[in-house]
Amino acid sequence: MKQRILKIALDTPLDQLFDYVWLDDGASSPPRPGQLAMVPFGKREAVGLIIAIEDTSDVPPDKLKPVLSLRAQLEPLRPDWIALCSFAADYYQRPLGEVVIPGIPKNLRAETTVSLDRALKRLAGKEHAHDPAPANMPPLNAAQREAAEAIAAAEGFAPILLYGVTGSGKTEVYLQAAARILAKPENHDAQVLILTPEINLTPQLEANVRARFPGVDVVTLHSGLAEGERLQHWIAAHLGRARIILGTRLAVLASLPALKLIIIDEEHDPSYKQQEGLRYSARDLAVWRARQLDIPLVLGSATPSLETWHHARTGRYRELTLRERAVPDAVLPAIRLVDMERDKADGGLTASLRAAIKKRLDQGEQSLLFLNRRGYAPVLSCESCGWISNCVRCTAFMVLHKSEHRLRCHHCSMEQRIPRACPTCGNVDLQPLGRGTQRIEENLQHLFPEARLLRIDADSTRLKGSAQAAFDAVHRGEVDILIGTQMVAKGHDFRNLTLVGVLNPDTALFSHDYRASERLFAQLMQVGGRAGRAARKEDGNAAEVLIQTRYPQHPLYAALMAHDYDRFAAGLLEERQQAGLPPYLYQALLRAEARELDAALAFLQEAAGMLQPPGITINDPIPMALTRVANVERAQLLVESPSRPALQAYLREWMLQLRAMKSRVKWSLEVDPMDI
Ligand code: ADP
Ligand code: ZN
Ligand code: ZN
């Protein structure tokens, strides 16, 4: 019997492939790279992915173990998918197995294959529809048409920034560009990947896409899918049957054999960054994937990330612009600042904002109040002794959730009943400090008892389907005043909404995080962009955005009022260049966690001293801003370089040494960190 050596990736922290033997008995079909295999690993059985097949192994023959079984039912994962995962593993300094195995649906990895067979059979039996003819496509305006045609005509690797103001009809451009690409005769089996930042935006987009492409299989991929659904959708994409794949960031790692176009809506959005495990940027991986496959990539935004904007300005990305709103006669809302030094807020609302809400109520129009803080109040306090509701496990406050009679830590999710009296001095008159969405809602109930209010935040939408139900109610006009966090700020096309009130944006102006102002601008532009999306009814009654601030002179607000992202972005980029910050500098962050802060810092100090290559700046280890979470102390070490290859080479070497250290401190590395 001839034996082959299978090089297999397993989901373990060991950064290597594992060798297993496969004996050719002449009867069963031979293994292929990209296939899944069950293998013995330690005391258990594990599923692995065959990366390569060779004749020899460096492992002594008596140590080599045989493969237990092959997963032959599934079409093997293709080399270009494995190459994408290998790139992600190398770039983000993770073992390949930790990228490829979690990237495959759980049911495919499970030990029994019975259920898998049944799934697969059902899919194989299904009729395979492909009629790319779109339906119900509204006529595009000139700018949209130009953009859609340019995208469809792009050849080879073509990164394109679609820079369009809120409501300029970017979605329509994506769909019609996709239609043109799917209709090309050479693309009879083509696939299009559309990424969206918010899981709550997928139903709206999905409905849109299905209506436009009745003859094409459309699937979604996001973390809200049940395991069975995820399996079906993943396989439909993997077999090439699904032609349009809509998803959140994780969809960038889907297996797509015939991918011909990638679209990233709201490309600047921070949620494209995975914040745990493999901390990848879906946007950056999408750019890599488009280059690898030699296909166009559309990055859509009204406020592009500075990285993308910089590439567009230096000519590396092509820029297509939509300057006006798409709905005829709809114009951008007027943005006004409310000076909170003059117009003092009562219950979080200034007189100007209260009057504006009243006016919209009288006119039968909807208002949206934006406050990026859920709960009733961020902290409960005792005025007589100074006690405040600190979390005992975190360097954070316990947030007051009044209706549930609870204090809740948003970092470690610890909960307790609201104390009847101060735990230190016994004072029974404990006071909430500050305001969250629940408190604003309560205040609005008093002010406008006849208005129909709806709060949308992570608390109000915990149950599956409840977010969708809430958004549907807004679209149906069953809500007069919507109160929400960033969940409501993105993407939604509310047609009867004419007022946006921003309650408390100032804290981000003075953040230690250098990205805070870029984010604040994008967020305000986005939430403001929810107003006035339908045609204006009469003059003098335009939609408006009211921003309550103590710093009306701040240049960020001046640029915002002028809807002038160009000037703002140019200014920020200049500052970044002078200060030596991204995108002019590349960064990686080593994080350490331990019971004692000193242990975490000592580990980082040792890590910092390991290598001193030229061109790499190794900063001092420091405690993280949120130092303690769930009784774990956290510290970080930032390394920087003006050269990405130099940083990558350093990280590779550094990782080898760090892994060899076998420290008891838990650590992780993040490449291109967003929050530092
Ligand atoms: P964006 O994503 O740029 O903020 P959307 O794609 O949500 O904007 O479009 C805003 C609104 O304009 C939507 O209601 C959409 O149906 C409408 N729209 C888009 N293109 C056109 C068009 N050519 N004619 C009329 N309405 C359009
Ligand atoms: Zn007290
Ligand atoms: Zn806590």
From TrEMBL:
GO terms for biological process: DNA recombination; DNA replication initiation; DNA replication, synthesis of primer; double-strand break repair. GO terms for cellular component: primosome complex. Binds 2 zinc ions per subunit. Zn(2+) 2 binds at residues 391, 394, 409, 412. Its EC number is 5.6.2.4. Zn(2+) 1 binds at residues 382, 385, 422, 425. GO terms for molecular function: 3'-5' DNA helicase activity; ATP binding; DNA binding; hydrolase activity; zinc ion binding. This is Replication restart protein PriA. It comes from Noviherbaspirillum galbum. The lineage of its organism: Bacteria, Pseudomonadati, Pseudomonadota, Betaproteobacteria, Burkholderiales. The gene is priA.
